[in-house]
Design a protein that fits this description.
about 80 residues; mainly alpha
């Protein structure tokens, strides 16, 4: 019998819970980032500026999302 296709991250192994697979993937990513950071050359200033703006926008979006979630919590809204 042919097995159905599996989800790329969560169903690789029938012996691991999806949360564990996700945690393993995150840990591998974190370790790769650390390993690759050591060998990385400095970014060109233009690219560094773009990444800085992206990080600032991302931080603002997270703060807005949190404040929105706080304002809707407790008022009966789904």
């Amino acid at each position: 019998m042919v097995e159905p296709p599996r989800n790329r991250i969560t169903n690789r192994s029938p012996h691991l819970e999806p949360t564990h697979c996700t945690a393993i993937c995150h840990e591998i990513g974190a370790r790769l980032r650390l390993a690759l950071d050591r060998d990385r050359l400095p970014l060109p200033s233009r690219l560094r500026g773009m990444l800085d703006r992206f990080e600032e926008a991302d931080a603002r979006a997270r703060l807005q999302s949190r404040s929105k979630n706080r304002s809707t919590a407790g008022n009966g809204a789904p």
